[in-house]
Specification:
This protein has helices spanning 7-14, 34-45, 60-71, 90-97, 110-122, 154-169, and strands at 16-20, 23-30, 80-84, 102-106, 128-130, 144-148, 173-178, 189-198, 208-216. The chain is α/β, with parallel strands linked by helices and 218 residues long.
Length: 218
Amino acid sequence: MPTGLDHAAFVLAETVVHAVPHAPEIRLRLADEAVALWQKTEEDLGEMGLPPPFWAFAWAGGQALARYILDHPDLVAGRRVFDFAAGSGLVAIAAAKAGAATVTASEIDRFALAAIGINAALNRVAVSVTEDDVTAGGAPEADILLCGDVFYEKPMAERVLSWLDRALAAGVSIYIGDPGRSYLPKERLELIKTYEVPVIRALEDAAVKRTSVFRLRR
């Protein structure tokens, strides 16, 4: 990765401010065109085959989690919240707005880390970030762990679920937002709420995704 690349400047240059469709109380800097941004990221980094710019879009699972948290602030109020694979920071921002004592957003993508800081400031909330690969370690220091749209690839899903089990064993409550990705551990989930969430058709197979919030059980 080029050392001189200004990730925050890139995020600001390639996105515009939008209200989140299913949680309009929150505004994010988002991309209007998925493929164009993906190509621009690869060109600026001088690398091909990069993963999609997850940080630049409000994914269905995150929107569902954000909506649920905003409507049920008692879930996070006064508690330590950890948002895993935070992307744009949408869920972390919702938790902060709902009165969480502390909020930490976890990401390994440097563009995402920049986007989270920019979006938190845009919404006037405090969100800490960590760029560690938390799935390699133990449970986070949190009361509530939130994750949206993380079960779309088998290797990642297996690694994440193993880490989530360590968090459950440590007494952390885990809530998942997901529109039915391929490797969602359905047999382990307690359904909390289902929404019809507007999404970008170019990224999904529909303009609206039926998306649920679940609690992970042991």
